[in-house]
Design goal:
- Helices cover 26% and strands 16% of the residues.
- The protein is of the alpha/beta class.
- Strands 45, 46, 49, 50, 51, 52, 53, 54, 55, 56, 57 and 58 form a 12-stranded mixed beta sheet that branches. Strands 43-61-60-62-63-65-64-59 form an 8-stranded mixed beta sheet.
């Protein structure tokens, strides 16, 4: 086979030969190679021809063409390029022919729907074909085509050209498809091509109907590869790849020939340039291991490429089976995931301790359940497989049944994870199952297998396949193959929802995937092609992946062959064997066998559930299987045996140890006498003997941070939202106190920690209503419950107490809520799981209306599923405290969490805070190969403890030749131990820091504790640091000497005190071995410096599992300001930059911190300090104070110091992926590199860090400068949720190592495999672990799901998980779907989520306090509590001491009441700014009252009063008793009411009044209708003789405006449930809103003309309507034969702010006592008055706390002014009307005219009404605005009037209101003689108008026989005539005498009536008028202004 000459060009037939491409390819590769060589530090670049041809022996060199087409198709596909399409102009049709779509030019129908049943004449050799027309997308056109020009079923053997016939008109012989397209009216804009339009074969079905058949297999057309974008040069990633969902991770150990390129912090496999021809891709390269490279973000070489395309023309050496697809498929650039186990999508899980779907060693019982292959094929597993091969193979089921395994089946594992992934990827969502005319198809079996091979090929030698990666690859390939259909399906999405929707994503092109999948209707991969393609793909990685396929007839045969080769050692370097069976006539079958030792171990351990894995570890420890491992580790080779060295270690009692002599301060050495541990002084004695004390240490408890207060208020807001909702699920008003119970996991430390927070928070003291006061911390323990078997009793007790105390709100706080979510039905009692489901989800708690559940967790994902019990509206997410570097809550703290740890891995200035230990990983890996039967956790723990023991021996200096021990430990471990031992020596009080060892296995942790304690004891270090075993089930056990030390630090006085929490270990130098399967909410002190997670399990990759382990290092930093130019000696730089993943929540929009570079710090001498000198994180202290004591300099031997001088990398790439420059260098190389790098790192620019976000909140990352400012000192706030230990503001010179270390977060050490996963990003730019399954108890709904987006807030993440996850059967929420509801949310269940250690405990404890205060507040209202005014006048009048009525009389006597004088003085405090009403003999207490502002009602004195059970409520009150009253009547639908018109004629108005009644169906019985459902005739009134204890006779009318929410219209409790008629009187424009809020209330709607009227109009209409209705009711009674006079004539006028009523009890011993009574009792008492009909108006006094002690209340009844709550006799008062025009003082005016008419007015002084202060709405709210704008403006009273016909600013305010307000504020100028002149009042005839507090008004009535005061001898200072009627005559006015100069004011409706009034009353005889004394209100003419005239008395 020879290459085509380069000079060959495209022929006229369109065939482009490969030579031209070859030339292009060569130039391209040459250019890339030269460029890569220039950028590379490698001596020898990759050979050009090696890149170009890859393998010389491949006989496929001519396959460079990117198209998979024969020459015939090249002719017609030549336009398939990336060049713009050439505009095609169709030949114009002949004149007069048909041009209709679907018809030929002869006018005959060609549509399949029309020709389906017609007989068609098809010539021999022709086939009926369905043709697609772009103008008829839903129809096929029928044509006949010669079969020779059509491809066969494999897409081959189609001749060039075209031959076809028209099936419409029958015309034959079309030789060109272009002519045929013109004939059948294909209206195209591009060149007609048969491959584009001939789509389907047509055939006749059994009924003889022509139907669409199989698609025509046009080879490579619809599946053809489009040209990809610009190649990835220099390692840069295209935007498409950056947004890809496919993650490209680094291998665990990077060999020299397998290195990825870094781009923007993302590890990427070096991309390979693709050969191009006519815009088509050639055979894609199988990526080979790339050459090593260096330099940030630069790729030194391009990848290699295999030329496997077909030759041009029809080459004889090319297999036709390959020609259709192989060349159209790119290799998959898969994710070499560095994870260590299988997918979390189908993770193993436990039920009653047993595995559910995890793969297990197959026993005989399991064999029976294994799916058998046909004909009973079986495979015998060889004996001694594990011993011979050193591995336990893992068989992944694939497609088809797996053959039965026999023999040694215990040494083989079978997993169904891959099979589940295949099935999930082939199960389309419902929306795609029937989509349009072209249904979307899932990936084929063959394509899944091929993609699986591609994925395995890409994995590194130490990487483990992750099913979740493979699933994402399947989804990406599927999406790309149906891109157009998916986009069409998502068209309804609005642009604003992009990035926020949760539908199926349409990601950009996936680099490296077989590109024929990216087009719809692709040619499927045939089974015969699959083995060849799979082997071709596997050949690129040598023997790493082996494919059995060509000569394998069955899976059994393939597995048998695999076992044979495995035993023969043929798979020593093979990690995966893929068996493919493609027998003809059968479905394709496959399986994958894992044969790599590392992969088999990791997969086998991942198949255990966590509990099973821990049991296996315990078994290995108890059976002695680990002894050989321990002995092997103890051996130090030539350096001897570790135990022997320890046994030989002795302490010289007279000579201090090297550690002590070199590291202790001079003061310490002078105080401490070196002696043996037994004789040494205790720490207490040492501290007391030390003169110097540490001033940096301080303790702060009880502090509530502002952000915690904000979260507590958010919790309270959500509780109020539940109460305010219409679901009636929480009636907060009915609760008067709070009780609570906090549920915590079964950890003793967590329990004591919560108790400590509760006790120190003061919540128990604040909730004083609890049974007993909390006096000590022990007393707080009864409010905290560990969720173990003892919890049942306490929760049952709470439930019983809740049922018996319905007025107490019980809060169940489920802390660490993600811990136990197991279903109780799946768990036994011994496991301790399922208690939460059994207790919190029980029906007793769910149905209790006074129990509210609050779940609190840092990892809420498992509670956010499709079947969750928590409404998304009841979720509270912790807000970010910073936005744009602005401290939103002013608390000067920043949270340092998981995302900040991730950011530290990307900083280029120093070691990241989160890293891995390569030395430890190498040693553990070698031991794992040596001991294949031991669990990796056992091996890794043994190695880790061995490293710590060696480090203790080396650093202590107590062993001779200890410098030789350094090589047996890792640099990281040596640094940790060195820092631990040296830290306490730098503080006078020996403050140190904590090292956390996380060992999940309790047995391994106990062994580690014993081992370390023994080494410490033998080295004599017992007084240096403590070793603590953190067992969740046991309390802390601390040595007494250390307890004494802590007591001194914390100033504890109790003798028996011991620390019970880790928080109380603040500053204690210690190693904490934290055990347990998972952390259970334990908070760690701020002295935590190292978080060693090197032995945590890598087998369970769920988001919750990973985040809660990393959450142990979460930290709160408190910043202290420092000069930018003077960071201060000893200041430590935080090892992180400011690049953050932040979040925008539903409450705040947060941005990023764009830090600016501060000036570089000064260069300080490079020193090593014992605090940091020997540890693996030099970045924690790059600058050491030159003033540091000499004793703090490096004291360890030279080799140790050399090993610990680690580099401070300066590139952003340095710690994204650990480079060989550090992790893989020898000791001497590391030392040299460190020395070379250290000085430049100090000059690196620094920037401010942003500790803003946490791992739940994700947003755009922004690149920031890599280092933190040295001046930014950070101090922590509280160490945990509600309180912490934190240092005070430190001095510039910190001697205390703890004080320096507490300002920076701890360092975290991770396993390498876990580090690679966590630090990598997925396709959306988020950390890789965010795309993992959130929890092992949930499952993904579908593989067809999008990835989480960086733009998602916490709320959107919740919605994402609620849409895409479902609980597994053993999840407690799995049963929450049985009731058939779509949202089975518990109405009283909340979820508080926030990052670990951020302060959630303090937030919810504070929430309890403010909730209690709010309940008390809800039970109280602000009641006006004011003394009555003008009481001196009243007292002077009653100096005679006459008692008119006995104090205990029940009802007033009319005769006695007539003898009482009427009290003209107004005593209501709300009228303290009105004019006095003159009365002879009365004298005011002063010359005038103080003038108040308009908002006087808002400044009046109020008192907080607790609501009684008889209170009236507003719309916010909900209780089960009010449901029917408020409209929740089962007989009627809510809002079911009718509108009725009621019309009557009023003689005074001279017109008809039309009112509207809105009557609910449930209240229609109160009305009479002319017929059922007809016209309203009136209200039904009872008879005066009716007596019923269950009803109120008087209708209650409540005028209201602007108070639809706050008006007190719910009288159910006030009426004690009795029947009553309550009518709300509203304005016409407010009808709808009142109807909405009060659907079951009767509304009386005033006419529209009264929309701007005041309270006078409302009372006027009520009174007139009531009298008219009384007359109608009497008429109806007369018609029925009943006496008319017996109809009840009273109505009640009630203010909408009357809240409670009281009655006075007379007690001879204690005096009068006032108590709350119901309104029913008050009204029934008043209605029962025997002589009530004699009274025109009755009422009661307003409540005041001082009334009962006042001497004026001796009379039980009195006559005077009545307000707010009136019982009106409409019969007697028929001739006295309310003034419908009045806005103010209308009740004073009405009472005076009622009294003057001779009617009795009676006030019941033994009853009082309480008025609630309502600042919203009401008739006292006056808005004065101009006509020019609707906005209220500041207009003075002088502008309320103007001269007639003048140009003035008109006001859009009623004229009457302007007049009243003008007279109120300016009457002291209008009536100057009346100012402060009580003896000479202003005479007001027939009305009372407020003239201001400085003017006294004398009211007289002009009516005949009216009752007036005696005015003989009284000189008046003015005369006020307001709308004088005919009763006012000149003779009437002559009865009064006026002062000279007295002022006259005449008010009329217009100027004409004004002049008429002056003339009629002959006023000009005694009064002088001027033209300038005429005024009008400032109203426009159309607003009918009022006019008034003033004059002076002559």
């Amino acid at each position: 086979m020879s290459l085509c000459p380069p000079g060959w060009l495209k022929t006229p037939m369109g065939n482009s030969y490969a030579g031209q491409l070859r030339t292009t390819r060569f130039e391209e590769v040459l250019h890339n190679s030269i460029e890569a060589s220039l950028r590379s530090n490698i001596v020898v670049p990759r050979p050009i021809f090696s890149q170009l041809y890859l393998e010389a022996e491949q006989p496929l060199a001519a396959h460079n063409n990117s198209r998979a087409e024969n020459n015939d198709e090249d002719e017609e596909d030549g336009s398939e390029s990336n060049s713009p399409p050439i505009l095609y102009q169709m030949k114009p049709p002949p004149e007069g022919c048909c041009t209709t779509d679907g018809f030929c030019q002869a006018g005959r129908d060609l549509r399949l729907s029309s020709l389906a049943s017609d007989p068609l004449d098809v010539l021999p050799g022709f086939m009926l074909v369905g043709l697609k027309s772009p103008s008829l997308p839903d129809s096929l056109l029928v044509c006949a085509v010669d079969h020779r020009f059509l491809p066969d079923e494999r897409g081959h053997n189609a001749l060039l050209g075209f031959s076809g016939n028209c099936m419409g008109c029958g015309e034959k012989g079309f030789r060109y498809f272009t002519d045929f397209a013109n004939h059948i009216n294909l209206k195209l804009s591009t060149q007609p091509k048969k491959q584009k339009h001939l789509k389907y074969h047509l055939h006749r079905n059994n009924q003889g109907v022509l139907v669409k058949g199989a698609a025509i297999c046009w080879r490579g057309h619809d599946g053809r590869i489009r040209q990809i974008g610009p190649r990835l040069l220099e390692g840069h990633v295209t935007s498409d790849e950056q947004s890809s969902n496919l993650l490209l991770l680094q291998p665990s150990h990077t060999p020299a020939n397998y290195t990825a390129s870094h781009t923007n912090g993302l590890p990427q496999i070096a991309d390979t340039p693709h050969p191009l021809t006519n815009g088509q891709n050639a055979i894609p390269p199988i990526p080979q291991p790339a050459m090593n490279h260096s330099g940030p973000g630069r790729s030194t070489t391009t990848g290699t490429q295999t030329n496997v395309g077909p030759p041009k023309k029809r080459h004889k050496g090319w297999s036709p089976e390959l020609a259709s697809n192989v060349v159209s498929e790119n290799t998959v650039k898969m994710s070499p995931s560095s994870s260590t186990l299988s997918s979390s999508t189908a993770h193993s899980s436990t039920t009653n301790g047993a595995r559910l779907d995890a793969a297990t060693p197959m026993s005989s019982s399991q064999r029976s359940s294994t799916t058998l292959s046909p004909s009973g094929l079986s495979v015998a597993v060889p004996d001694q497989l594990l011993r011979t091969c050193g591995l336990q193979p893992v068989i992944f089921k694939g497609h088809g049944p797996l053959p039965r395994l026999t023999g040694n089946v215990s040494e083989v594992l079978v997993s169904s994870l891959l099979q589940s992934c295949y099935l999930s990827s082939q199960t389309l969502p419902r929306v795609y199952q029937h989509y349009g005319p072209s249904p979307i198809q899932p990936l084929s079996t063959e394509m899944q297998i091929l993609l699986t091979v591609y994925y395995l090929v890409q994995l590194g030698p130490d990487q483990v396949p992750l099913i979740e990666d493979l699933e994402q690859i399947f989804m990406r390939s599927w999406r790309e193959s149906h891109l157009s259909e998916i986009r069409q399906n998502q068209q309804p999405q609005t642009p604003g929802s992009q990035g926020r929707h949760y539908g199926i994503e349409t990601p950009p092109t996936l680099p490296g995937l077989p590109q024929h999948l990216s087009l719809p209707y692709q040619q499927p991969l045939t089974p015969s092609q699959l083995p060849w393609l799979a082997q071709l793909a596997a050949s690129s990685c040598g023997v790493g992946v082996v494919v059995f396929g060509e000569h394998v007839g069955s899976l059994a045969q393939g597995l048998q062959l695999m076992f044979c080769k495995l035993l023969e050692g043929g798979f020593q370097n093979t990690n995966y064997v893929v068996v493919i069976v493609t027998a003809s006539g059968q479905e394709t079958q496959s399986c994958v066998v894992v044969t790599g030792k590392h992969q088999c171990r990791a997969l086998a351990e991942s198949m255990f559930s966590p509990s099973e894995g821990l049991r296996e570890i315990n078994h290995q420890l108890s059976s002695g299987e680990t002894q050989e491992l321990i002995q092997f580790c103890n051996s130090l080779g030539q350096d001897g045996d570790m135990d022997s060295l320890l046994d030989s270690a002795t302490l010289d009692s007279n000579e201090p140890s090297p550690l002590s002599s070199s590291q202790e301060s001079t003061d310490d050495k002078s105080v401490k006498k070196t002696r043996s541990p037994k004789d040494s002084h205790s720490p207490k004695q040492r501290v007391l003997a030390t003169k110097e004390t540490c001033t940096e240490y301080s303790v702060e408890w009880r502090e509530v941070r502002p952000i915690q207060l904000a979260v507590a208020r958010k919790l309270l807001s959500h509780v109020c939202a539940i109460a305010d909702s219409s679901t009636q699920n929480l009636d907060l008003v009915s609760f008067d106190r709070v009780n609570f119970l906090i549920l915590v996991p079964p950890s003793e430390v967590t329990f004591q920690q919560t108790v400590l927070h509760l006790w120190s928070s003061g919540v128990l003291q604040e909730l004083g209503s609890l049974d007993q006061e909390c006096a000590s911390q022990r007393d707080a323990e009864r409010f905290v419950v560990k969720m173990d078997q003892s919890a049942q009793v306490q929760i049952d007790s709470l439930i019983q107490e809740a049922h018996s105390n319905s007025y107490t709100l019980y809060i169940l706080i489920h802390d660490h809520a993600h811990w136990d979510i197991s279903s109780a039905s799946y768990c036994n009692s011994e496991s301790g799981l399922g208690l939460v489901d059994q207790l919190l989800n029980s029906r007793r708690i769910r149905d209790a209306p006074n129990i509210l559940i609050l779940h609190v967790t840092s990892f809420p994902f498992a509670l956010q599923t499709q079947f969750t019990r928590i409404s998304p509206y009841n979720e509270i997410h912790w807000p970010s405290s910073f936005s744009n570097d602005v401290d939103l809550y002013h608390e000067r703290t920043r949270y340092f969490g998981v995302s900040e740890l991730l950011d530290s891995t990307r900083s280029g200035g120093s070691l990241p805070l989160m890293r891995y230990d390569s030395s430890f990983e190498s040693m553990a890996a070698s031991l794992e190969e040596r001991f294949p039967k031991l669990h990796s956790a056992v091996i890794r723990t043994t190695v880790l403890i061995h490293h710590y023991c060696i480090a203790l021996m080396a650093v202590s200096g107590r062993l001779s030749g200890s410098h030789n021990l350094h090589k047996h430990s890792s640099v990281e471990t040596l640094g940790i131990v060195q820092s631990l031992l040296s830290a306490a020596q730098q503080c006078p009080t020996r403050h140190g820091h904590m090292v956390l060892l996380r060992i999940p296995s309790l047995a391994l942790a106990a062994w580690a504790h014993r081992r370390l304690s023994r080494v410490r004891r033998q080295l004599g270090l017992e007084e240096k640091f403590e070793i603590i075993l953190g067992n969740p089930g046991q309390p802390l056990n601390i040595g007494q000497s250390f307890v004494d030390q802590i007591k001194i630090w914390l100033k504890v006085q109790e003798a028996d005190w011991v620390p019970r929490t880790y928080l109380e270990l603040e500053a204690l130098p210690c190693i904490l071995i934290l055990s347990g399967a998972e952390p259970l909410g334990e908070s760690l002190p701020r002295s935590l410096k190292y978080c060693d997670l090197r032995v945590i399990s890598c087998s369970y990759l769920q988001r919750t599992t990973l985040e809660q382990e990393l959450g142990l290092a979460a930290y709160l930093l408190k910043a202290e300001s420092r000069s930018p130019h003077n960071p201060g000696p000893g200041s430590d730089l935080l090892e992180s930059d400011a690049e953050k993943l932040s979040s925008t929540d539903n409450e705040e929009e947060e941005a990023q911190d764009n830090g600016k570079n501060s000036p570089p710090s000064s260069n300080l001498p490079v020193q090593s300090s014992p605090d940091i000198g020997a540890k693996a994180t030099p970045s924690t202290q790059n600058n050491i104070s030159p003033k540091a004591p000499k004793s703090t300099k490096a004291s360890t031997p030279s080799p140790s110091r050399a090993q610990t001088q680690l580099p401070a990398q300066s590139t952003s790439q340095a710690f994204l992926y650990p480079q060989p420059s550090f992790h893989h260098l020898s000791q001497s190389q590391s030392q040299t590199y460190a020395q070379a790098q250290q000085v430049p790192s100090q000059n690196h620019p620094v920037s401010q860090i942003n500790f803003q976000s946490y791992f739940h909140q994700v947003s755009h990352p922004q690149l920031q400068p890599p280092l933190l400012p040295a001046q930014s000192r950070r101090h922590p706030s509280k160490s945990t949720s509600s309180g912490s230990l934190s240092p005070r503001a430190s001095s510039p010179h910190l001697n205390c190592s703890w004080a320096r270390g507490v300002s920076r977060p701890p360092s975290v050490l991770l396993p390498r495999s876990l580090y690679d996963i966590i630090t990598a990003n997925d396709g959306s730019g988020l950390p890789r672990c965010t795309s993992f399954l959130p929890h092992m108890s949930v499952a993904w709904v579908s593989s067809f799901r999008p990835l989480l987006s960086k733009m998602m807030t916490c709320t959107e993440q919740s919605l994402y998980y609620r849409q895409w996850t479902v609980p597994r059967p053993y999840h407690m929420d799995s049963s929450n779907r049985t009731e058939g509801r779509s949202d089975n949310f518990h109405p009283r269940r909340l979820l508080l989520s926030g990052p670990p250690q951020v302060g959630k405990t303090g937030a919810y404890l504070h929430f309890l306090g403010i909730l209690s205060r709010m309940l008390i507040r809800l039970m109280e209202v602000d009641i006006y509590n004011e003394e009555e005014i003008n009481l001196t006048v009243l007292l002077d009048a009653r100096e005679d001491g006459v008692q008119y009525s006995p104090s205990n009389v029940l009802w007033p006597n009319p005769e006695i009441m007539k003898t009482l004088s009427f009290d003209y003085t107004v005593h209501d405090p709300k009228y303290d700014d009105i004019s006095f009403v003159y009365c002879p003999g009365y004298k005011p207490v002063s010359d005038g009252n103080t003038v108040h502002q308009e908002d006087v009602c808002l400044r009046r004195r109020t008192t907080r009063i607790k609501l009684s059970k008889y209170a009236a409520f507003n719309t916010y009150h909900h209780c089960e008793h009010c449901h029917l009253y408020l409209g929740f009547n089962p007989r009627y639908q809510i809002y079911e009411s009718s509108l009725h018109v009621f019309t009557f004629t009023h003689l005074r108005l001279g017109e008809e009044i039309q009112l509207y009644f809105i009557i609910p169906k449930s209240k229609e019985h109160y009305f009479s209708f002319n017929q059922p459902g007809g016209q309203v005739e009136g209200l039904r009134l009872p008879l005066s003789t009716d007596r019923s204890p269950d009803s109120i006779k008087s209708p209650i009318f409540t005028p209201t405006t602007g108070r639809h929410e706050h008006g007190l219209f719910n009288l159910y409790h006030a009426m004690d449930g009795v029947s009553h008629l309550h009518i709300l009187v509203v304005k016409e424009y407010e009808m709808a809103v009142y109807k909405k809020y009060w659907p079951n209330h009767i509304l009386l709607v005033m006419p529209a003309i009264f929309n701007a009227a005041g309270i006078g109009a409302a009372h006027f209409l009520i009174k007139e309507l009531s009298y008219h209705n009384l007359e109608l009711e009497r008429s109806r009674r007369l018609e029925g034969g009943a006496p008319a006079v017996d109809v009840w004539p009273f109505v009640i006028l009630a203010d909408d702010s009357c809240v409670m009523w009281n009655a006075v009890d007379l007690n001879v011993h204690t005096g009068p006592v006032e108590h709350a009574v119901s309104l029913k009792q008050v009204l029934q008492h008043m209605e029962a008055c025997p002589d009530l009909s004699h009274y025109g108006l009755c009422g009661m006094r307003k409540w005041s706390s001082r009334v009962l002690t006042a001497p004026n209340q001796r009379e039980p009844f009195s006559r005077g002014h009545l307000h707010d709550f009136l019982l009106l006799n409409v019969d007697q008062s028929q001739n006295v009307q309310y003034d419908q025009n009045r806005f103010t003082c209308h009740d004073v005016d009405f009472t005076l005219r009622l009294h003057s008419a001779g009617l009795l007015v009676c006030r019941f002084n033994n009853f009082s009404v309480m008025k609630k202060q309502i600042a919203i709405g009401g008739y006292r709210t006056f808005i004065i605005k101009t006509k020019m704008t609707d906005v209220p403006t500041s207009v003075g009273p002088s502008q309320y009037i103007c001269a007639p016909d003048s140009k003035h600013l008109f006001l859009a305010t009623p004229a009457q209101l302007l007049l009243e307000k003008y007279l109120q504020h300016t009457s002291h100028k209008l009536f100057p003689l009346s100012t402060k002149n009580y003896e000479h009042p202003v005479l007001s005839v027939d009305c009372y108008i407020n003239l201001g507090p400085e003017v006294t008004v004398c009211f007289v009535s002009s009516r005949p026989h009216s009752v007036n005061i005696c005015t003989t001898g009284l000189l008046f200072s003015g005369l006020l005539l307001c709308f004088a009627d005919t009763f006012v005559t000149p003779s009437f006015l002559k009865n009064f005498t006026f002062l000279k100069g007295a002022t006259l004011c005449v008010i009329s409706e217009d100027r004409s009536s004004l002049r008429q009034t002056v003339g009629r009353l002959e006023l000009e005889e005694e009064w002088r008028f001027r033209l300038s004394d005429e005024f009008q209100t400032a109203n426009a003419k159309e607003d009918r202004p009022l006019f008034f005239l003033t004059g002076k008395h002559i």
